[in-house]
Amino acid sequence: MLKITKTEELAARNIPFGVVEVRYPPREEWRVDEFRAFAQGELEHARESYPDYERKAVFGSDPYVRFFKKFKKTYTVMLQFESIIIKRLPFPLCDPVTEIPYLLELTTCMLSGTHDIDRIEGGVELYSGTDRTPFAGMHGRERHTYPGDFVGRDGAGIIFSEIAGADDRTCARPDSSHVFYPVFGTPDMDRNLISSAVDKLVSYVRILAPNAEIETDII
After folding, report:
1. Distance CA 79, CA 74 (A)
2. Per-residue DSSP letters for the chain?
3. Axis-axis angle for helices 96-108, 191-208 (nearest 10)
4. In angstroms, rounded to a whole number, what is the distance separating the alpha carbons of residues 137 and 157?
5. Which band of pLDDT confidence, cut at 50, 70 and 90, is reported for residue 160?
6. What local confidence, expressed as pLDDT, does residue 39 receive?
7. Residues with Cβ < 8 Å from 115, sequence gap 6 or more?
8. Which of its termini does the chain have fewer beta carbons within 10 Å around, N or C?
């Protein structure tokens, strides 16, 4: 399994971090239609659960909203949730590998992502950001970390910032078959929330690719 470690400084902040590592079988073995039909059912169930949605009632005490607010940022998953679940915009179909964490975010409001392990150099170190360190975000957009951020780096540089998102170098591509899905926590978040999200993500992978090799950890 991909080696992921935390610095002592970050460990002291008590931020749980879930990892789901997946080796997908050849794509001809995937059950894409079944997965997407299941995903639509999950989305409809979520929509039916919020007939009278009010942001404050749903997200007023959300730990991610509070965490992002410290950086003067709006929690991205909340905006996605309001677009897809509340406004009923179409679920974007692009690559099933990356649709899985997006579905998890919409159904649990937990923060996730996807990274291609074959593009990671060495292991991954998780650390607490101390300054505004620039890195190339997805699609070549310039991004930077923040003081107090939750950051991951490999031997070649930053691969994600919880606040700023994933990098461009290790984010999943259409040919990615060996990936890891992070499930981000916030300071003092209950580890059971991370564990539950990890289990749900694994169940999504199994629907798409029953023969996938899966390993999990909570760090």
Report:
1. 8
2. ---EEE-HHHHTT---EEEEEEE---GGG--HHHHHHHHHHHHHHHHHT-TT--HHHHHTT-HHHHHHHTTT---HHHHHHIIIIIS-PPPP-S-HHHHHHHHHHHHH--EE--EEGGG--S-EEEEE--S--EEEBGGG-EEE--TT-EEEEETTEEEEETTTEEBSSSB--TT--EEEEEEE--TT--HHHHHHHHHHHHHHHHHH-TT-EEEEEE-
3. 140
4. 12
5. very high
6. 98
7. 159, 160, 166, 170, 171, 172, 179, 180, 182
8. N
Tens digits of per-residue pLDDT, 46-102? 999 999 999 999 999 999 999 999 999 999 999 999 999 999 999 999 999 999 999
Give the count of beta carbons closer than 10 Å to the beta carbon of residue 193. 17
Closest CA to 124 of 79, 158, 98, 87: 158
Tokens at residue 38, please?
């299941």
Average pLDDT on 129-158 reads 96
